[in-house]
Each structure stands twice: as structure tokens, then as C-alpha cells.
């Protein structure tokens, strides 16, 4: 399929023929609703409610077969609104049956719900018909399900994001603990997650444990948990802070227990993150395009895994602009007559992909000489704002990812510099 949106739209409409039965399915957790139309939008048969299990899927299949016979149709195309994760099992089952399934955008369903009855009413039965109408008019996208290493990366990256959020929450709780019981601690250790800071909290859980110690005893305590001895200067500052602390002296035993549990959880999350990092690295090795994409300075394994988890195989795209559209980074403009509106990104796409592309470019502007030069050129010569330049470079990175994956080529400094 061509990558230009106008050509894609025409191709989608042309795929719908008079021989098609078009089925719209409104997805829910327990019970789905299906309605069918022909290529002109005339509803065929009564709607069907079916459960989200094997029995319900078989019921849907029998219902479609009966309608095909009744209305003399030879083909069927099904459209669903991807609601959360509740549509995955149905999609896999339909793929096994070799039935064509397409997706409609939930935002467009909301916008098109008044087309038939000029009413803001919303319910499952009505939404199913709206979805069928949208498929008939070509307002859908082809289904792409991650498979093989891309599905594995998607699962691992999702788990890593969850653990990362939990670890951040634990760190915030440790900051809260020190604010209450040892507020001067953060004057000694600017980063509370540093190895020496965590070793201090684990070995000397409360400032009262430090008041009777000498500098040498503190260093000996650090040696139990650190490969390298801590700084004498830091030990002196720590003891001085403990002796003049204004932290709460109440419930010391309970406070120590709480801190111990927080540190154990943080260590557990750290170990899990290391395990996930190792698994991700191993899976990336099995993807042929990885070697080429790793040659881009500033793209490390975790960033590449996150990109794969959101977009799948980059070589499936005809052009980088398709990847941009998937991320919602394509441009929109509101203009009428002599009025020219401001050009903005649409944000009609996957927010996770949009986020990781932005983060990747932000990193590359810092460490990649070519992207840093392009960023400075955009700001100084083209007078772009910093954010507008970053968005423009997101487009360049997307086109690079697709081209390098399709051609198997390595990062070419000359091609990047020629764009300045």
C-alpha cells in the first residue's frame, strides 16, 4: 500500500465491494455487540450480542455465515474499535479463521456517532453500526499484531515500565522517610539512590545509630556493603549532620523497620530491571535490523527495544512518514480563506511511540554530533524554537529507522550532514 494518505484512503474504499458483508463490533470486557451492513451502508439482519469466549466467537461465526447466505455475500470484513486489551483474543481467533479484521480509531467513532440519526446518543448497539459505517467508507487501518521477537519485546518493555514506576515510588518514599527522621541526610548525599547513600541507610538506619560512632567506624560499616571504601570527608559530614539533626525521635524501631522494607523492595526492583535488561539484549540480537540501528549514536538497547515494542518491524513501512503518522507526529493546520492557522502536530496516534521518539531525539541532540549540528542549524539559521526543531528531527529519525531497516544499511554521517 502506498504511504500517501490520499492514496491509502482510495485503496481502502476500493477494497470494499458489493460482495462484502461488513461487520462492526463494539468491544467490551464480557459481551461484544455486532451489526452488519452491505457496501452501501444498508443494515443486514438483526444485531448480535456474544460473549468474549470460545462459545461467543463460534456464535459470531455462525451468525455471519447465515447472513452471507441470506444476502448472497461471498466475502466478509470485520471492524473493531480497539478498546484496551479486550479485543486481543477475538482478533487472534479471527486470524486463525483467516477472516479479515481491521481497526477503527475510537476518536473517529465518537466523531461519527451522529451521522445516521443526528443524535448524541451512545450505546453498544449504536456504536457497532457506526463502526460498520466507518469501515464501509474506508475510515479504518489494517490490523498489525506484534509477533515473534517484537511481541516478546513489547511484553518485556511493558513490564520494565511498570517496575520503573514502582521503583520511582519507592525512592519517593525513602525521600519522605529522610525528610521526617533525618532531614540533614540530603545535605550530605545529593543523590539518595547513590551506592554510598543506600549503604548508609541500610547500615545506619537512624541518626541515633551514628551519634556514638567515630569516622573510622562509619567507613568500616560502609566496607561491609561497598567494594570501595567511602570518603573520609563524607563520613565526617554525615556524623556532623547526625549530631545536629532535627529529625523525629519518635517510633525509632518502627521507622527502622519501614526503611528496611523500602530498601529491600528497591533492591528487588533493581535486580528485576537488570534481568529484564539482559533478556531484552538477548532478544534484540535475534532481529536482523538491530545491528544497523545500533550504529546510530545515541540509540541504546532500551530505546531501541521501546521503539520496536511500539512500532514493530520498521521494514513493514513503505516510508518513514507512515511511522510518523502512527505516532501522531504528522502535521495539521486549520485555515480558511485568508486565515492561516498555526501548524501543529495532530497527536492522533500512539502516545507511547510519540514519547519514545521524542526521548530518543532528545538524547541524540546531546550525544550525536550530526543531530546536535542539525538542531543548532534549525535554531540559528531557520529560527525555529527548540521544541519545533526537536519535532522536526523526530521526523528525520523516523525516516532513518525505516530506510535503514529496509535496506540493512548502517548509519551514514554524510547523509545526515547533507540535510543541514
Could you please describe the fold and organization of this structure?
This protein has 420 residues and is an alpha+beta fold. The chain has three domains: 138 residues, Nucleotidyltransferase, domain 5 (2-Layer Sandwich), CATH 3.30.420.140; 131 residues, Helix Hairpins, CATH 1.10.287; 128 residues, no CATH class. The protein is built from 18 helices and ten strands. The strands form three sheets. A six-stranded mixed beta sheet has the order 3-2-1-4-5-6. Helix 9 packs across helix 10. The two termini are 31 Å apart. The model has no long low-confidence stretch (mean pLDDT 90).
In short:
By secondary structure, the chain is α+β, with helices and mostly antiparallel strands. It contains 18 helices and 10 strands.
List the helices and strands and how they pair.
Blueprint: H1 5-15, E1 20-26, E2 31-37, E3 48-51, H2 54-70, E4 75-80, H3 88-96, E5 100-103, H4 106-112, H5 124-136, E6 141-142, H6 148-181, H7 185-188, H8 195-203, H9 215-223, H10 232-243, H11 252-284, H12 290-294, H13 301-311, H14 320-327, E7 331-332, E8 335-336, E9 339-340, E10 344-345, H15 351-367, H16 369-380, H17 386-407, H18 413-417
Parallel strand pairs: 1-4, 4-5
Antiparallel strand pairs: 1-2, 2-3, 5-6, 7-10, 8-9
Helix pairs in contact: 6-11, 6-13, 9-10, 11-13, 13-15, 14-17, 15-16, 15-17, 16-17
Amino acid at each position: 500500500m502506498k504511504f500517501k494518505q490520499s492514496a491509502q484512503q482510495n485503496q481502502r474504499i476500493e477494497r470494499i465491494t458489493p460482495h462484502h458483508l461488513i461487520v462492526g463490533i463494539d468491544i467490551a470486557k464480557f459481551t461484544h455487540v455486532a451489526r452488519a451492513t452491505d457496501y452501501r451502508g444498508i443494515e443486514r439482519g438483526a444485531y448480535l450480542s456474544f460473549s468474549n469466549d470460545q462459545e461467543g466467537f463460534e456464535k459470531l461465526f455462525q451468525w455471519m455465515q447465515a447472513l452471507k447466505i441470506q444476502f448472497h455475500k461471498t466475502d466478509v470484513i470485520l471492524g473493531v474499535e480497539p478498546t484496551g486489551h479486550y479485543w486481543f483474543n477475538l482478533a487472534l481467533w479471527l486470524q486463525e479463521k483467516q477472516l479479515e479484521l481491521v481497526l477503527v480509531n475510537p476518536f473517529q467513532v465518537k466523531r461519527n456517532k451522529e451521522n445516521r440519526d443526528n443524535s448524541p446518543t451512545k450505546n453498544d448497539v449504536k456504536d457497532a453500526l457506526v463502526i460498520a459505517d466507518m469501515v464501509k467508507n474506508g475510515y479504518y487501518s489494517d490490523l498489525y499484531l506484534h509477533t515473534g521477537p517484537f511481541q516478546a519485546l513489547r511484553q518485556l518493555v511493558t513490564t520494565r515500565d511498570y517496575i520503573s514506576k514502582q521503583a520511582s515510588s519507592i525512592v519517593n518514599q525513602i525521600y519522605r522517610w529522610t525528610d521526617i527522621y533525618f532531614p540533614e541526610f540530603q545535605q550530605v548525599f545529593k543523590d539518595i539512590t547513590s551506592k554510598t547513600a543506600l549503604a548508609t541507610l541500610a547500615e545506619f538506619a537512624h541518626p541515633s545509630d551514628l551519634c556514638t560512632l567515630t569516622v573510622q567506624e562509619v567507613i568500616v560499616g560502609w566496607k561491609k556493603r561497598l567494594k570501595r571504601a567511602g570518603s573520609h570527608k563524607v563520613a565526617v559530614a554525615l556524623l556532623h549532620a547526625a549530631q545536629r539533626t532535627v529529625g523525629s525521635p519518635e517510633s525509632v524501631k518502627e521507622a527502622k523497620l519501614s526503611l528496611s522494607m523500602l530498601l529491600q523492595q528497591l533492591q528487588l526492583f533493581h535486580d528485576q530491571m537488570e534481568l529484564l535488561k539482559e533478556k531484552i539484549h538477548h532478544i534484540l540480537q535475534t532481529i536482523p535490523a538491530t545491528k544497523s540501528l545500533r550504529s546510530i549514536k545515541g540509540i541504546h538497547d532500551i530505546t531501541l527495544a521501546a521503539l520496536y515494542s511500539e512500532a514493530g518491524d520498521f521494514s513493514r513501512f513503505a516510508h518513514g512518514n507512515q511511522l510518523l503518522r502512527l505516532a501522531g507526529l504528522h502535521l495539521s493546520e486549520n485555515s480558511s480563506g485568508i486565515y492561516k492557522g498555526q501548524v501543529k502536530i495532530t497527536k492522533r496516534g500512539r502516545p507511547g511511540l510519540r514519547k519514545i521518539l521524542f526521548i530518543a531525539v532528545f538524547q541524540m541532540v546531546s550525544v550525536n554530533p550530526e543531530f546536535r549540528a542539525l538542531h543548532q542549524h534549525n535554531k540559528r539559521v531557520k529560527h525555529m524554537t527548540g521544541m519545533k526543531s526537536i519535532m522536526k528531527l523526530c521526523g528525520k529519525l523516523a525516516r532513518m529507522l525505516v530506510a535503514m531497516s529496509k535496506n540493512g544499511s548502517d548509519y551514514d554521517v554524510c547523509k545526515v550532514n547533507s540535510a543541514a
